[in-house]
Amino acid sequence: MEMPVPSPAHRALEALEGSWIGQEKIHPSPFVPAGAVAIGRVVNRTALDGFAVVQDYEQETNGKVNFRGHGVFRYDLERATYVLHWFDSFGLPPSEYKGTFDERMLRLTAITPQGHARATLDFSHKGHYHYTLEVSPDGEEWFASIEGQYNRQG
After folding, report:
1. pTM for this prediction
2. Per-residue CA distances from 127 to 21, 78, 85 (Å)
């Protein structure tokens, strides 16, 4: 029996691979009422023989790590969609984001216990990516939550 091989859609996730660091703007929210500027560190590695990318994330403000997250990105052939399973140190139930990856833009949306969320990762510039997380109580009116500019390390 031959083992399956990752499709071009799976391989698109290779754009995430590597260690990244960047400055983040955290917009005011119930979690951070005054907003903040933070340093984000991301380590992404290919897993499951190329069928997934595993992410470990930490956010630092004022010299202290105050938030951690863990994600598993994959392409779901049956649903023809990209999926991110997200877990974090807020201790809330895991979230499942779904979306598209076209050209150099990964766009994912989720409905979480806090409302709607959409994440955009823009890989238009080699060695850099721009991250935006927006939230909405109803899926109609959106508010910026986090914006980050990351640079590949090494």
Report:
1. 0.93
2. 11, 31, 24
